[in-house]
Description:
By secondary structure, the protein is α+β, with helices and mostly antiparallel strands. It folds into 3 domains: about 1-150 and about 200-225, BirA Bifunctional Protein, domain 2; about 155-195, no CATH class; about 325-450. Helix content is about 55%, strand content about 10%. It has a 5-stranded antiparallel β-sheet with strand order 1-5-7-6-4, with helices on both faces. A two-stranded antiparallel ribbon has the order 2-3. Strands 8-9 form a two-stranded antiparallel sheet.
Amino acid sequence: MKLAIFHCQIKIISRGKGKTATAAAAYRSGTKIVDDEFGETHDYTRKGGVAFSEILLCANAPSIYSDRQTLWNEVQKIEKQKNAQLCREVEVALPIEFSRDEQIEVVREYITKNFTDKGMIADWSLHDKLDGNPHAHILLTMRPLKQNGEWGAKRKDSYALDENGNRIPVIDQRTGKQKIGARGRKMWERISIQSTDWNDQTKAEEWRKSWADVCNERLKGQAHIDHRSYARQGKEQLPMLHESYAARKIAKRGGYSYIIEYNDQIRELNRERELIERELSEVQADIKRLEQEKYNIQKGREQDERANQIRERLQRLAARERELPQSYGASNDEKRATRVTSDVIGTKEQSAREENTGFGEQIGGKRQANTGKGQTDTTSILQRAEAAINNSKLNKQSRRAGETDTAALIRQSELVLNDTKNEEQDRGNEQCRGNSEKGEATRNKSNRKRTSL
């Protein structure tokens, strides 16, 4: 799989280093430019590898600056100092994953976003010798343009102000007083302010990051480039030196190039480091997997021990449940039902005794009849109680169900007892009234007999 690399180099082309903007533009674009300042002609039309070239103007730039020779001769004309900075060059490596059209589009997007929208003019060329190293050279103007299209000032002089906003005087070290200049004017501290922030050191970081972002938006999942150094990325890879065209040309002819040899050694070391790191990551993954398996085994043992403890607790609980229904539920239910039956029998006998108290021989037969009838009712109640007890015994399979049935039996027996008491009370009242009437009739009859005698 092909991998994109990040390369974004920024440098200044200045007159102080013996460079000219016209020569730089002619070489990078592979064209012919006549230098009006020195009367020289820079002809690079025979230079190969220039795949594309164009000039992108900012909003307030005159259209005549679309001509490369006109543009850079005007730049050299406005820059008069012998050490003047003529132009800025940004060199970027193009991802080999991009097609030619995509390479052109990504460079245009990058230039528009970072340079022409900020007021610069960009003259850029795409180089590709089909050697796997496509790249772009971007030449940028360093002086801003006014709204009327004229060149503006790079910097402005202004008075230096203190914290209170007052001008700071220039003090004479000998007298300790403010210096007086020509024509008796007082001298004040002055500062030079850049008219733009293009020379700010933070711009280099911003432009490098922007190039990575623009490329990554189009690369998507194919690859990824990072503008940060290996150290900032937290990688232990060794960085390589930039291989210039001259160095590669020497190596291609079989000559010796320190940069090429150094980079070859760095590539080998990084390759070995990558293999070691890959093996280390595999070993660490195995260790993590084994630790997880060990943890799972230990966890499984703990779960087994806990399950055994729960089983023992359930067995003890089951043993206690088997004991409770036999010793508590059944016997107590039978005893309680028996007590209810005894109460019923005692109540019937007591009623019979009260009914026959104070009456004579004539009502003895009636008492026997009533007693017989009471015994018949008592026998019926006993049979009903025994049936209830039998039903309770049949429902003793479940402790909870047994307790519920027993409670129902008790309530049923109590209802039977109450009904029996009510019936006996009514029957006793009727019998008492009848016996009283018969006793009165007998006494009247006895009195009549005494009177006749």
